[in-house]
Amino acid sequence: MARSLVLSIAHQFGHAVALSFAHQFGHAIAQSLVLSLAHHGWQMAVHQLLTLLLPLTMAQEFRYQDYQEVVGIGRYKVSSSPLTWYEARMDCVGDGTHLAIINSDEEMVAISLVYNQFYEPGQAFIGFHNLYQIDDWTTVLDDPLSDSGFTRWYPGYPTNSTTMHCGNVYTGLEGGLADSSCLEQRYYICEIPLEMPLNDDCGSKDT
Asked: Which pTM value belongs to this model?
């Protein structure tokens, strides 16, 4: 019943509730609420609230100096510390960008090369999930994963487990997509699409 109430409020009142909450209690408390709900297993409620709160967390100054450009493909930032998928998503949006979405085999290779400069090949959070429906993988831009241009799963994935809702990429030789718990802490990759201008007016579409 409590979960239904949270979802109902998020659906009916949208940004008005999020704005009021943030203005009265501050963004830090709003984010703490999101993470607290996540740790209690309210995955869908968290996703709904996070979608409402993301626009409120966006930084005024666009921090693109941490991003590395792969010519003709994209610009990427590899995190310096592991976070949950929810926290990782908020960090990327704070830059005015979004968790990386792989659109081709070439981009899979590019992301792996960028990640492997910093860490041993492994799993990193990227921008897709199945928080809406167990067998419905969706990007953080709300497009079907099947339309992304890259849907090769790492051997053994997806698990389609009821506790593994968030997307990863394996950056090794047999690179591919994977799923894991959104509450695990992992390194992650943010992306600036090439078509996005690098100026202070940039804003993420992940809102």
From this structure: 0.70
How many C-beta atoms surround the C-beta of residue 193 within 10 A?
15
Whole-angstrom Cα distance, residue 75 to residue 196? Answer: 10
Domains of the chain, by residue range, sit at 2-57, 68-192
Write out the CATH class of domain 68-192.
Answer: alpha beta
- The residues, any chain, with a CB within 8 Å of residue 115's CB and separated by 6 or more, are 78, 121, 124, 169, 171, 187, 189
Structure tokens belonging to residue 127: 């921008």
Q: CB-hemisphere CA count at 13 Å for 16?
A: 4
For 13-53, write each residue's pLDDT tens digit.
444 444 444 444 444 545 555 555 555 555 555 555 555 55
pLDDT digits (tens, 9 = 90+) for 43-60: 555 555 555 555 444 443
